[in-house]
Amino acid sequence: MRHLSHFIFTVLGIIFRHPVTGATVIPILSSGEIVLVRRRDTGEWSLPGGIVDWGEQVSVTANRELREETGLELKQIRRLVGVYSARDRDPRLHSISILIEAEVEGEYRFKNNLEVLDVKAFPPEQLPFGYLAHDHEQQLKDFLEGKTILA
């Protein structure tokens, strides 16, 4: 019994002492507009994304989260924009965000209305800076400047 409780506490310690990994997408429509979602919890605009499930590849997570939050399909990953790991980048927990730029297509049909209030495409010059969740303002600025970031 002692070995089992030690094992359980070790596993819980590993899980809760390490950051959660997520995939975040900069969805680009053929028009060049960038698609954002309005978060239900804060009302702020955000890039679509979420936590990588156990055994799931980051590209699969990106496509799944994009589909769940916007209804759009990932057509092609263009590039890795960066990896963001600052402790305070997400106020809920320490998370690592793997940010990718992707061509997307389809119609807005978001399923996950527990998280998303609205979906909207913005021309790059009209992105709602000052009204973005987490560190998505910095992520979008890095993207627009053509940077590849490890932060």
Provide the fold topology.
Elements: H1 2-16, E1 20-28, E2 34-39, E3 45-46, E4 49-51, H2 58-70, E5 73-84, E6 95-105, E7 116-122, H3 136-144, E8 149-150
Parallel strand pairs: 1-6, 5-8
Antiparallel strand pairs: 1-4, 2-3, 2-7, 5-6
In total, how many domains does the architecture comprise? 1
Parts with pLDDT < 50 across at least 5 consecutive residues = none
What percentage of residues falls in helices of 4 or more residues?
A: 10-25%
Major sheet size, sense and barrel closure:
5 strands, mixed
Specify Rg, calculated over alpha carbons: 17 Å
Quick one: overall form? Answer: elongated
The order of strands across the largest sheet is: 4-1-6-5-8
Mean pLDDT: 91
Give an overview of the whole structure.
With 151 residues, this protein is an alpha/beta fold. Helices cover 25% and strands 34% of the residues. The protein has 3 helices and 8 strands. The chain has a 5-stranded mixed sheet with strand order 4-1-6-5-8, sandwiched between helices. A 3-stranded antiparallel sheet has the order 3-2-7, with no helix packed on it. It is elongated.
Short account of what is shown:
The protein is of the alpha/beta class.
Name the features.
five-stranded mixed sheet, alpha/beta, 25% helix, three-stranded antiparallel sheet, elongated, 3 helices, Nucleoside Triphosphate Pyrophosphohydrolase, single chain, 151 residues
